[in-house]
Automatic annotation (TrEMBL), chains A, B:
Binding-site residues for ATP, renumbered to this chain: K5, F6, G7, G8, T219, D220, Y225
Family per similarity comment: Belongs to the aspartokinase family.
GO CC, alphabetical: cytosol
Residues annotated as domain ACT: 389-448
Keywords: Amino-acid biosynthesis, ATP-binding, Diaminopimelate biosynthesis, Kinase, Lysine biosynthesis, Nucleotide-binding, Transferase
Pathway: Amino-acid biosynthesis; L-lysine biosynthesis via DAP pathway; (S)-tetrahydrodipicolinate from L-aspartate: step 1/4; Amino-acid biosynthesis; L-threonine biosynthesis; L-threonine from L-aspartate: step 1/5; Amino-acid biosynthesis; L-methionine biosynthesis via de novo pathway; L-homoserine from L-aspartate: step 1/3
Catalytic activity: L-aspartate + ATP = 4-phospho-L-aspartate + ADP
Top EC group: transferase
EC numbers: 2.7.2.4
UniProt name for this protein: Aspartokinase
Gene Ontology MF annotations: aspartate kinase activity; ATP binding
CDD domains reported in the protein's UniProt record: AAK_AKiii-YclM-BS, ACT_AKiii-YclM-BS_1, ACT_AKiii-YclM-BS_2
Pfam families for this protein: AA_kinase, ACT_9
Length: 448, 448
C-alpha cells in the first residue's frame, strides 16, 4: 500500500485534478491519498488558504465578506465545472462553509482554524466525488473518522500517539480513500491545524499509521535539488538522500519538504519519494534511512538569512562554572530559542533568528546578561546568514572542510563562524548576509 | 620601575643566583624582584617544591622526615656555600622550617600550604641576604608586609582587590626589594598559596600594584615559540604577542606563562617581557595590548590532549526550548566545567577534560541526561586533542581557515570538530590524540 500526498499546486485546477486521478489510477497500490487546499495556478494567483485566512479575518472584524466568500467558491466551482461534476458537490461545500462561519463567528481562533482546514477538507470531498464520477470506488475520509487526534493548540497541533493505533483500521477499508491534509481533531472534538505546510505532516502520519510501503509526496518539481535553484542555475538533482540529510536541509532553507513532517515516517522507517505531478515518469528523489555515500559524500547545501549573534566576552569566563548555563537560562526566561553557541576561552556567542530579538526584549536580555553575569562586553551582530553543508559522508572524509574553506577564500567570503562536530551530517558556516549567495555558489562549484 | 620575576631554574643554584644578581644590578630600574623556589638544576633533579610536598605528607602521616628535611636544607646550603654567605642565613631558614612544622603539624592543609610557600619564602630571604653580602641595599619583603592579601582557599588563593592599594607603598621604599612568589596571606593571617606556577601571579600582582613600567618574567628560554618545540624543531621565536593571544596559547598547552597570571598586568595595561636568565642579551618576547598583525596574522599554535566529548542526539532537539540549559545544569550539578558545546539541529556535544569524568560520575551524568532529557542517543568519545590556532589577525583574514583545513587534509588528519566564531583571536580544531602532532606540524608548515 502506498500513501500519496498531493501538494497545493497539484490540486489547483481541474487540469491538475485529472493528472492526480491518472497518477492514482495507474498504480493500484496508491490506495490512500492526502490532498492540500488548491494552490496557485499561476505566479500571481492567491492560494485558497490565503483566501480563507482573509475570510476568517473579515468575519471576526465584522466586515462584509461576500466578495471573499465568492472568490473561495469560484475556485471550487471552476474545478467542478472543469471536471463536469454535478452541482450537488458545490452546494455541499457552500453549505459547509456557511455552517463553519455560523458556528464559530464568536470564537476567532476556532473560526480561523476551521476555515483554514476547510480548504483541504472541501478539496478532499471534491477529489473523492471526482473519482466516483469517473466510476471508481472512492471515499472521503474525515480526519476524525480516520483517527487523527491532536493536541488542542490552534495552528500548532501535535499528533497524539494513540492516533497511530486507530489509523491502522484504514487498511481494512476498500476503494480509494481521500483524506484532507493539514488538520486533526482535539479530544474535545475541535478542528485544530498543524503548523503551515502541514499537509506533509498528515501524509506522513497516515503513511506511518498504515505502515505504507512508501510515502509518495507529489509536488511540482522533478526532484529535490542539491542547492536552491534560485541561487545556482540548473543545480544537480538528488536521486537519494537520508532522513537526517533531508531534515538538516529542510530546516535550514529547503522549502520542498516540511521540516517536522519527516518524523512519523522516519520513526516508522518508511521511505519517502518526492515526485512531480506534472511529470510523474521522472524518478523523483528518495528519502531513505541509509544511502551509499562514497561517491557523493555531500548531499546538499542549504542557506538561510535573518540571523544575529549575541557576542559576550569576560576575562577568565572559562573558569566560571555555570556561566554558559546562566546565559541560556536568561534566554529561556525570555522564550528565546537559539541555533548555536560557539565559544572561546573568554568568549561565547549565541546565534539566533533575529526576529526573536525585538526592541525591549533585546535591551532586557543585554541588560540582564550585563548585570547578572558581570561581563566585560556584550554586543549584538546582525545580518548574518547560516550556510549548512549536509552529507552523510561528511565525517569520514578528510578534506570536506578543506574544500569548503578554500571555496570561501577563493570567493573572498569571510567566515564569521564555523560549527562542526556534533552532527555527523552537517557543517555550518556563518557569513554576512550580503555574501551568502556568493558563498553558496562557491560551495556548489567545489562539491558538485 | 621594573618588576622582575625569576622562575625556578633561574634561582636553582649559586651560579644562577649570580646571574640574577648581575641582571638586577645591571639596570637600576629593576627595583622589585620576585623569586620562585629553587627549581631543577639538571633534568632528573627534584624541585624544591616537590621536596617540600613530600615533607608535608610525611609529617602529616607521622612518618620519619629527617631525610627529606635534610635534602631540603642541603639545597639552601649548597646555594649559600656557593655564594660564600655566612651560615647565619642557613640557621635562620632551618629554624623557620622547624617552626612551620611545629605550628601546623595537626593541620594538614595549612601545613602543606605553609611548607610549599617556604620554598619561595626562604629563597627570597637568601636572595636578599646575597645582595647585602655583595654590598647593596636590599630587603626581603614578606607578602603580608607587602600587602598581598588573598582568599582563604589553600592551594587556590585569589587576590583580594584591596591589596593593590597597599602594594603602592612599595614604591616609597629604598633599595632592592625581594618578594617571595606563590603565596599571600588570608585576612585571618594564614599563608595561602596560589595555584601551582603561581610565582608568575605574584609578579604580575606586584607589577600591577606599583604600576611598573614593565613586568619582566625571567625563565630559561630566549623567547616564547610559536609552537611547542617538542613537536616542531626550532620553531619561530615570537617577538611580540598580545595579552589575548598569550592567554589563549597558555590556556591550551603553552606552559611558559601561567594562565591566570596575566590578568593583573592585562587590567593595568603593563607590558610583559619574557626573557632568559641564561642569555639576558636576547630581546625576549613582549606581551602587549596591541600588535601590528598584518605581516603575521597568526601568533601561535597550541595543542593539548586528554579531552573527551559527550555526544547527545535527540530528534527535534532544536524545537525544545531549554534543552541546552538543562544539559549544562546537570554538568554544573556535578561540578564539571566544559570547553565547548558544538551543536547541530538534533545534536549537541560537550567537550571537556576527560579527567573530570571518572567511573561513577560518568555513569551518573549519562543516566541523568538519558532519563531527564529523554534523549535518543548519548555516548562518550575519548582520546580527543584540541588544537588552537591563535592570532589577532584571524578575523579579518579570509583564508586563515582555508589554510588550516587544507593542511589537515594534506596530512590526512580528520577533523572531528571545528569551533570558530566567538573568539576573534582563535580557531579551535578537535582531532584524535594519535593525530595531534602530525596536525600541529602540518599547521606550522602552512602558517610559518
Amino acid at each position: 500500500m502506498k500513501v500519496a500526498k498531493f501538494g497545493g499546486s497539484s490540486v489547483a485546477s481541474a487540469g491538475q485534478f485529472r493528472k492526480v486521478a491518472h497518477i492514482v489510477l495507474s498504480d493500484e497500490q496508491r490506495r490512500i491519498i492526502v490532498v492540500s487546499a488548491p494552490g496557485k495556478r499561476f505566479k500571481e494567483d492567491i492560494k485558497m488558504t490565503d483566501l480563507l485566512i482573509q475570510l476568517a479575518n473579515k468575519v471576526t472584524n465584522g466586515d462584509s465578506c461576500d466578495d471573499v466568500f465568492t472568490a473561495v467558491m469560484e475556485r471550487y466551482e471552476e474545478i467542478a465545472e472543469g471536471l463536469e461534476l454535478s452541482s450537488e458537490i458545490i452546494e455541499k461545500i457552500k453549505a459547509d462553509l456557511k455552517k463553519i462561519i455560523d458556528n464559530y463567528k464568536n470564537e476567532p481562533e476556532r473560526l480561523m482554524d476551521a476555515l483554514k482546514a476547510s480548504g483541504e477538507d472541501n478539496n478532499a470531498k471534491l477529489m473523492a466525488f471526482y473519482f466516483n464520477h469517473l466510476g471508481h470506488e472512492a471515499h472521503y475520509v474525515n480526519p476524525k473518522e480516520a483517527g487523527i487526534f491532536v493536541t488542542d493548540e490552534p495552528g500548532n497541533a501535535q499528533i497524539l500517539p494513540e492516533s497511530y493505533e486507530k489509523l491502522k483500521d484504514l487498511k481494512k477499508r476498500t476503494g480509494i480513500l481521500v483524506i484532507p491534509g493539514f488538520f486533526g481533531y482535539s479530544k474535545t472534538g475541535h478542528i485544530v491545524t498543524f503548523p503551515r505546510g502541514g499537509s506533509d505532516i498528515t501524509g506522513s502520519i497516515v503513511a506511518a499509521g498504515v505502515g505504507a510501503e512508501v510515502y509518495e509526496n507529489f509536488t511540482d518539481v522533478d526532484s529535490i535539488y542539491c542547492v536552491n535553484p534560485s541561487i545556482v542555475d540548473n543545480p544537480r538533482k538528488l536521486k537519494e538522500l537520508t532522513y537526517r540529510e533531508m531534515r538538516e536541509l529542510s530546516y535550514s532553507g529547503f522549502s520542498v519538504f516540511h521540516d517536522e513532517a519527516l518524523e512519523p515516517v522516519y520513526r516508522a522507517g518508511i521511505p519517502v519519494c518526492v515526485k512531480n505531478t506534472n511529470n510523474p515518469e521522472a524518478p523523483g528523489t528518495w528519502i531513505v534511512a541509509e544511502r551509499d555515500h562514497k561517491e557523493q559524500p555531500i548531499a546538499g547545501i542549504a542557506s538561510d538569512t535573518g540571523f544575529c549573534s549575541i557576542n559576550i566576552s569576560k576575562y577568565l569566563m572559562n573558569r566560571e562554572i555555570g556561566f554558559g548555563r546562566k546565559v541560556l537560562q536568561i534566554l529561556e526566561d525570555e522564550g528565546i530559542s537559539y541555533e548555536h553557541t560557539p565559544s572561546g576561552i573568554d568568549n561565547m556567542s549565541i546565534i539566533l533568528r533575529a526576529a526573536q530579538l525585538e526592541g525591549e526584549k533585546e535591551q532586557r536580555i543585554i541588560d540582564r546578561i550585563q548585570t547578572e553575569l558581570n561581563v566585560d562586553d556584550i554586543h549584538v551582530e546582525r545580518n548574518l546568514a547560516l550556510i549548512m553543508v549536509v552529507g552523510e559522508g561528511m565525517e569520514q572524509t578528510v578534506g570536506v572542510a578543506a574544500k569548503a574553506t578554500m571555496a570561501f577564500a577563493k570567493a573572498n567570503v569571510n567566515i564569521e563562524m564555523i560549527n562542526q562536530g556534533s552532527s555527523e551530517v552537517s557543517m555550518m558556516f556563518g557569513v554576512k548576509e550580503e555574501a551568502v549567495n556568493r558563498a553558496v555558489k562557491a560551495l556548489y562549484e567545489v562539491y558538485f
